Amino acid sequence: MKTKRYLIFWGHWHYPQGGWGDFHYSFDSIEKAEMHISERCYQYTVGESERTPKTKKFKRFDWWHIVDSNTGKKIREGKIYDE
């Protein structure tokens, strides 16, 4: 698999892997990278039983960065907050 220009890194404040350990995906455009982050930043679970189907939303990671692999510079960053 060829790495694309815009690299996505994300992780947790308490357990960062560091460097390439926090790398997850790469994309050809910033827009696609940002869309991927917004689609992945939260996860949903269904309640314990079918009689009480409570949906719970929780964040999958605490922070994210988009790095331009041509320049090596971080071009976007963000934090994910509990809702």
Biggest β-sheet, characterized? 4 strands, antiparallel
Provide the low-confidence segments as ranges.
none
Order of helices and strands: EEHEEEE
Distance between the termini: 35 Å
Share of residues in helices: 10-25%
Mean pLDDT across all amino acids: 84
**Largest beta sheet: strand ordering:** 2-1-5-6
- Beta strand count: 6
Q: Quickly give the structural class.
A: mainly beta
Shape: elongated
Total domain units: 1
**CA radius of gyration:** 15 Å
Q: What portion of the residues fall into strands of 2 or more residues?
A: 35-45%
- How many separate helices? 1
Kindly describe this structure.
- The protein is mainly beta and 83 residues long.
- Helix content is 13%, strand content 41%.
- The chain is built from 1 helix and 6 strands, in the order ββαββββ.
- The protein has one helix at 30-40, and strands spanning 6-11, 23-27, 42-46, 55-59, 63-68, 73-79.
- The strands form 2 sheets. The protein has a 4-stranded antiparallel sheet with strand order 2-1-5-6.
- A hairpin with an 8-residue loop joins strand 3 (42-46) and strand 4 (55-59).
- The N and C termini lie far apart (35 Å).
Question: How do the helices and strands line up, and which of them pair or pack?
Answer:
Layout: E1 6-11, E2 23-27, H1 30-40, E3 42-46, E4 55-59, E5 63-68, E6 73-79
